[in-house]
């Protein structure tokens, strides 16, 4: 290990320890243990350009163990990414700083994905590797490998314990994602103590069972061994690689290294001094780094910039030789506005149907329309495509043999599916969707939250959206899931009532720039509504109105809109002035102006009934203290759907009766 | 295979096919493929007594692939469990029948766990095996193995793809749960087609990596091979066993066997006729079963009853020789009332603290008080015990070497942890708790829902309950999680404001008979509230009141109660009549009488402010159309907690200002 390499590795360590100490908060264990791995990778094996962090063909790096954020921030600072300054490091974990507690995508230049919830990065890396493989197949031409990069992900014992990593890696092995390289920081320590208390499995054997090449680095401080393993991993393009790197958590801090106490709290002023001594660090001043270290990183950065320059030259030639491919490239990477315009102007897209149809089926038709307009649409289901109606006909299945396929078979792995969908979106170039039964959206929740937090506009297709599931019973009947997603910031949940609203939901989803969207769709047929319109894009609108000021408002979504309309007929016949508000997307309605909201739900009208075959939770904002609910108050039951709707009070009679009781 | 065995196996197949056909709904694939496995297991290797389904020492059996419910119902019917009649089978999947679409615990006699969400059964089985191992250590004496049974679980490819099974089995291997036996129905078929499209891993090697003995049955119709494998599995007590049984989905139905179409829809009338022909089934009439088949099962049932009789005799001797153990047994299996009484009467349990303290720390003290009163309390954290404060001092760690330990180290596996907690509770004899950061409750959601659905009063300890998390930032700051759990039926979420309310929350949790409870606790210190009381058990109560009728109500929970009280002081000084309502458990408040609710929140009082450092979603029910919110509207940020509270408006000034704006 040369002097400059040693100094550079230790710069990462000391900067990390200093920042955590100054913040009096953070996780020094990972940065100290993994500094050599990260340095060797970023310096000698990864294609990236600090001057152009968004270079399309860069190698991707995800720090799955997001608590070790200072490892990443130190690297980004030393390489000069986004002008991440010494002051930024000094403001680690402070309000408004660029250096948040965990890496945040979109917040700090050079951060490829938000991590923190363990295992998430593993799933997103698989998604990025899938995107790379698919885009390479679509775009590469002889002598023009315009998409040709690796995806690296670094995580620890926690990431490997989380089920999501097994889900994601089992699929990665099946798909033979040869350019996915997983770096496993094996330090044998967890928060509660030695990993032996809960984790004695043979991780390498598990990964082999999944179809990975497995490699081992016995000494996590040995740059040569790390480099050799990375090169060996890169060389095997037939299967993903897994490099177990044996490290010591908190390496360099004599009082804490190898102990759980090194994980999640500052080392302490004295221990930071001891770290300097142990590493023979030449600078006493916190955050001080020898000039030659900066020179080392900036020299490397310049060399790396050349790689991009070469790629750009190649890409220019490619565009010249294949102008149609350039156009396609732009369609993939920057085509959202065109899609938006085309869909908006296409009357047939918004057309009402004549016969009753399930919204899942209508959604399936939309997908098979979108697939032509959006060649970069790629997605699938967690083994429920025939039920979710998510299959793109004629577009093939993405597999080890067919990288051109656009239909994903995620297997019964909802959580990894969602992380993979996020990864595909984060990669750039693709619009992805994922699907399962609405009740199993529960499994997707941790990663759906990351979609919202990262502002990744992934689309979720959730079918079988209520007790309309019928015979499968309460384990398969969503109740609280709609509230769960409505309560989540920056997430749109659409529950359309017919073809027009289903088109609106898809339009909203695929044109969204920063908000993920879930479509919540029926298993059973729904009657087309005469009053439905693309006003649905405002979240709620008047679908059926009385003359003059209403005295009663019936609010509903999805399958219950028809109930509201029919109840209105009965009540109108009795002389009541009734308005029906369709509310397919509560979240979007909340984003409207106060004026618009007042125009739909005038505050003076206090008689209000919410009708929805799911939990009433969250409707109170519109029902107020004087309204009423026709909703589900417990779990469902097993039986034919029609009987269930009757049994649980979703009848015109009950809605009418509930409204009458309001006076 | 003897004639009677063949007939009996086929009885399971034909009854299943008939019931599914009659319901015109259901999943024939699994029952047809797994009938021999289930028959051989229940007939010749499992200790159970149809006449006493709750026998404490019975072997446990969980059908993790819950969609194959007719397999279980057919067995239960043939063995005569709970008088499950032929008519009950005929009413499969009908509203109100005993034979719901998926097996439901507490609904059908003989069903040990509710299954349907794939992988769930795998996790619960691990929990049951842990319970068995612990209780055996606690209770068994020389010559008196009063707790000594196996736990069997049967699942398919879907269960193995779900991440929860990797989480649970990795822990099961670490813990060396020798009496856990997993039966893997390997039929190579998933809903979207061959498992090869998404699942080519070597499952046996994965299980070996986890530390399981692995066995293979090449022909799923070979009862002898199945029986031998089960006996081999039973014989190895040092590690759990995994038996891969190669089956054909839908076996016996020539048109569908081995195909995805066999999985989830009725075979069709003609195919059921073909099945009868293929199996040489002697009866034409649907649901008709030869007399000798019933005799075969009932003879077996009688023999099995003898095993319980022997156990009862042994248990009687045990009680005579160790009367103190009998008392302990009763304390474990039937001690809830005594706990309830003791806690209620113990004034020190309800005592207020003098100094500010975090509710997680107060909870830790309660746990260490409860552990003596409740020797059957057993639980732990997903590798966050030092932060969650869930460690029971002096009670040891449950491990391969120490079955007496009461502290569980679940590893970083929140989902499996929750399923395991459910399994420990379902087993009987234990009161279990699980713990993680509140934001990671997302990972627990699918199995927390099963707790609620099964009415299993598991306790969840969720700490770090808001932006009070501070520097770790938005990936670690819960926002919508409180709404997520409040929206779930039969689930109590407590967010206490001090020691008295924390005691109330734990009291409610451990005395609950049918409802799981989550405790949502702060990282940061909270000031003891003068007005707090065990009225908290009603979910909401007046913590600080004005004289006469209030004109303004401030509603808050947890860390925000102090804000409400201080804002009240300011507003009172201005002459406003203000009431402060502490609402630690919205769910329990909803369960109170209308009179009680009106007494706390009089409908006439329209000026209301909800104050809670989490999503406002769900508060509308109490805020109404005229109130206001001091809540979180987006994700949090990384920074010192105090700064975050100020930044996001959680200050006395802002609460006062918000209230003033109401007029």
UniProtKB/TrEMBL annotation, chains A, B:
The record marks 27, 263 as: Important for catalytic activity. Mg(2+) binds at residues 157, 187, 189. CDD domains: TPP_PYR_DXS_TK_like, TPP_TK. This is Transketolase. Pfam families: Transket_pyr (PF02779), Transketolase_C_1 (PF22613), Transketolase_N (PF00456). InterPro entries: THDP-binding (IPR029061), Transketo_C/PFOR_II (IPR009014), Transketolase-like_C_2 (IPR055152), Transketolase-like_Pyr-bd (IPR005475), Transketolase_bac-like (IPR005478), Transketolase_BS (IPR020826), Transketolase_CS (IPR049557), Transketolase_fam (IPR033247). Thiamine diphosphate binds at residues 67, 116-118, 158, 187, 263, 440. Its EC number is 2.2.1.1. The active site is at residue 414. Signal peptide: none annotated. Catalyzes the transfer of a two-carbon ketol group from a ketose donor to an aldose acceptor, via a covalent intermediate with the cofactor thiamine pyrophosphate. Its cofactor is Mn(2+); Ca(2+); Mg(2+); Co(2+). Substrate binds at residues 27, 263, 360, 387, 464, 472, 476, 523. The gene is tkt. Homodimer.
